[in-house]
Design goal:
This is Carrier domain-containing protein. By secondary structure, the chain is an alpha/beta fold. The chain is built from 44 helices and 49 strands.
Length: 1407
Amino acid sequence: MSLVNSANVANVPKADDSALMRRFLALPVDKRRVFQSRAREQGVDLGSLPIPGGLRDGRDGRDGADAPLSYAQQRLWVVEQLHPGTGAYNIPAAVRLKGTLNVVALSQAFAVIVARHEALRTSFHEGPNGAVQRVHDDVPFTVDYEDWQGDGTAVADRDARVQACARAEAVRPFALDVAPLMRARLIRVAADEHVLLLTLHHIVADAWSMTRLVEECTRGYAQFIGTGGAGTHVAPLPALPVQYADYAIWQRGWLEAGELERQLTYWRAQLGDDHPVLPLPTDRPRPAVPSGRGATYVMDADAALTTRLRELARTHETTLYTVLLAAYGVWLGRIAGVRSVCVGVPVAGRAKLETEPLIGFFVNTQVMRVPLDPKASFDRLVATMRARAIEAQAHADVPFDKLVEALQPARDASVNALFQAKFNHEIARDAVPEMAGLRIEPLVVAGQSSHFDLSLDTLERGDTLQIALTYATDLFDATTVEPLARAFPRLLAQLAQAPDDRLADIALHADVPVTTDGERHVWETRDWMQTWASRVAQQGDALAVEGGDGAWSRRTLDAHADRVAQALATRGIGAEDRVALLMPRSASWVAAMLGVWKLGAAHVPLHPTQPSARLAQLIAASGAKALIVAPDVASVPHVDGCVTLAVADLLAGDEVRFVNRSVHPAQAAYVIYTSGSTGQPKGVVVSRAALHNYVQGVTSRLHDFPEDAGMAMVSTVAADLGHTVLFGALAMGRPLHLMPQEDAFDAGRFAEWMRARRIGATKIVPSHLKGLMLAAGPDVLPNDWLIVGGEAADAELLTLLHTHRPSLRVLNHYGPTETTVGVLTHRAASNDALLPVGLPLPNVSAYVLDDDLNAVPPGVGGELYIGGAALARGYLGEPGKTAERFVPDPWRPGARMYRTGDRVKRRADGEIVYLGRADDQVKIRGYRVEPGEVAHALRALDGVQDAVVLVERDARGQPQLLGGYTGELTEADAKAALTSALPSAWVPSRLVRLAALPLTANGKVDRRALLAAMSTDRSAGEAKAQAGPSGEIGALEARIADVWKTVLKTEQVGRDANFFEIGGDSILALQVIARLKRGTPPLKISLRELMQHGTVARLAAALTPSETAPSTGGDLLVRLNASKSSAPALFCVHPAVGTVFDYRPLAQALADERPVIGIQSRMLIDPAWSDTSLDEMAGRYVDAVRTAQPSGPYHLLGWSLGGPIAMAMAERLRASGQTVAFLGLADTFVPAQQGDAPPVASSRDWTGDLLDYLVTILPQVDAGTLRASLAPHAGKPLDEGVLAAAVDAALTMQGQGGTPVAATGDYASLGRDELAHMFRVTAHLRALADVHRLRPTVVPVHAWWIERRASDDRERLSRAMAAAPVYEGTVASSHMQLPRTKAWIDDVARAVREVSEVSTLGVSVAA
């Protein structure tokens, strides 16, 4: 049969089209593929055929029939498994209704909507082959009504109460297995004003759906008002041609037949194989588990700018959406420092006409890659994005989760796959819906959630454009985001004004200047030697220098320098010549250096311990004409053209008076060699002007320096680290103390040397200092000023310093050798979370620039460039390298900048924060990772003293992180702690605990030695691991591997292979979870845990015995009697105290009839656990119950707070197709439902709760005495000491006449700590109960109440359940004595017996 003849869309009637599509969908998938292929060959587009209605009915027309999830629903189902109980995917709406409202009509309108749309009668469940949606014929829906108008609250307070209520409703989670996933709350705030809070879960609705819902609600309300004769006739809506489940079945059937693969081909080509995480300028590392919290900053583009943007769109024959998407990409590229950005864009997903009237989750997400070629113009970018938008629309049917599966990005529960920034553009609806005489006003609710790192939402409203930027508060502070957000409208103005400019020339105009400048200063002297000469003239006899070879006054030191200068001059050495100094730290070394300078020559400091060949290389490269050596140098190299002179001979000469030669400020002061990336050293030539400016500038920072304090130099002479104290001491007229080399790395000798002198200041490398302090304590510190530099200083060091020496002033000092010792300083404060490197010294400028030399705004990372008086002349004899690093300053014609290669960011106050070397960044599984931030997290762990994280390449050439640390924490514990705190890509592949971090001669961490040490450790570790684990952990690994093999359909799974890198995806992961749960013993893991511990070995290690679920449901279930009966057990849910002691009398009474099993609080047995909601608890308890009893009928009983939990459990069991034969509520807690205070987070007074708790469980307590002792603490934060004392007092309370009252019963047998912990559990559960909402239930309820229980509680329960209990009994008892009252026990036993007999007869109770 020709498909053209039977499937021509234009000629075949619609009924035939539907029939053809129905036949197509009924075919097996392989035949559907053939059918689709032939249709395409004949020019027939099956995708244009309509969706047939009643597809779910064709499967099974009964209530609760299962249908597959749509791909969009499946994505949210996965999210729920990752973050159970989250409210992040709620869709809240809040409106004010002004006028006379008919509440009954409004409720009827909602009921009709629920009846009309199957999506609102749908629940979601885990089926044998994946998640399913279950449509119910009848789902009760009520509008919760509350009347606040008569409570006497002021208008402002009432508005705040409404806001709090709306925020709580917006985030209150749904249980996906209980329909409806919609709730409405109506609050009367005045006689003619109501607030309606409407919340739906995204899995059954989207923004389009909310519009439909409002339209149908207003229409239905008018209709019900009209039926009462008070309005006009409203025509009924036409019947829906299809329902959402039909769409889900059609979508899968059509895409599985080859259409999905066809469209995926396009997206693979567009998005490629590399999917890096967008490196946004966050304020904090990404948490392992996002909270979903967010905030929004709102701006406007005025009419003039909006007009220009629209004109630009018209020029390109496109829409404003395309222009704004391109501009958003430019903005993201600028703040992230990348050349390509992927942006998530929601699309309606309702291309099929029959889906337009439906409520359901149709919206899809497309990933648009925005290429940012710096040479291209914005005009060209808009044209590119126009073409891509058209192409994307033609391939818009690929569900986002299928795109993720196809592209296989690195999976991480902490980050959204494929994109982290979202964009959405809408055009505002001008018409506000009317509601039969009511005026509807949207209510803006403060408080946000954020599903992505950044989300830009733009709204065209008339002539203007509203711009809203939402950001994840896990990652960003408002102080960072808001200035960046304000730069976006300015960027739009630039792009609209000059769309033909190169993107490289487009900068984000921030609120601050381009440069951070140090103060401008003209010094009194023009050369450092003039400063020294003045010190000699002022106090010639004052101590100048003390070293291992003696202590000399200023006059003596200067005289020795004259001898050196004279000796060199006689050998023809003069201005700009170089003289090498091969000497250790000593007074002679200082004299030799000064002598070289008196000539106008430059000195080249060399370290005596370096190999002779290396020394010869440096001397030759420097072109030194003379080499001055100390007497104890072991090996003196011989270099042609360089004369070797012994310093002892020079200093022993006759006294001379050498007149300093006139020098030019640009002449060289010294040449210091730094290591180069090629292994060849580079000689940095520093001018005398630069050195003079540095010395004057840095000493100006060291104010309040005691007159008698000296300065200690403890670092190598071959680097410029020590120049701060070397020249600072001589310039300030302070004694310079030179520590012997052998003392510098021995903590004990270091401390002893410091104690023997009055050291006011020293400069040292942070890692060197930390090692000294951990070994010898605060005696290694100077008295007044500590200067740290040479490497990044961390907050942990600052804490250590503040603890041991709080009065010590700490100066963080930064600067490459090429910028003369240092250029930035920061006076550390105790509250520095991340120690900045600070602000520029006088006459120095700092720039933070991107790759195109545009200035970046505060908070954004960029490369640091240095300008001004600090710059060195360049590299000796290497003009090419000099030109590469010393580049023209675009803001100051004729000036230069030094490109540091360091990544920094500038704070809002101008302070600069060091982020790391640009070449230190590494990309791991798509993440751009800063090893320094990982090291910071490692140091923050208890039991870790110091840590370094390095990058190494594995056998495949892939980068990996290696962490070395010192301290007591085991490697396994360190890895576990990092895994729980950081994204998986940030966790080092290997952690090695070391006795000490190896250091170089000048105190920096020796990275080569560290890598060697870790490699040695790895070799031993790998050899040990070859055999693999054994025992219980080995069996667990084998079991996990077997499940993976089955699910992934592979024969081999390595213990270190990552599930998501060997073919696994989120859907297959759910199959793994289900199979492990069904095994013996059942293993309960979450999708988040599987993503965090992605290998067999790591997952097995994470599943400790306490986390495996024993066959009886784990420690949650407690057997309360020894019944041997085979009857189904009665499961009793704990009250607020968390224990199940009180059910024992009932359990004993039923011992001959059935087992009684208590469900106790997990928080009671696991102090680290914290429940998040009663619904979440109910889900966990159902899992435990079904582990012990896999199928119904089930019998549930809840006393006190256990009542609402038992109700939630019953609904979950019923929604999953199980029978609940008995649901008993014993004097149940009834949460606020209607007419009560809004359910916001509890702020109860803990002292009142404690008094109530102790009086309740310990009858001997004298309430008056205890109340008086607690009164001073009322309204204050929980005080653990007061809590312990109160419990002690209650346990030892005396009765009348002063006689002690013996504590009796289960609770009294517990000690103080147990009772205190139980109170914490009670307080927490009460707070959760305050915000819980009961749902209508179809499960029959048996209720018992004590005589004094208020009748309104009973009525409130009936309203919340939408039905009265099938049985209500009243018992003469108190609340606490009810479970022990014989009349109640007998009545419960009777009721359970009767419903069991009904079940035995085969009568359905509730399923």
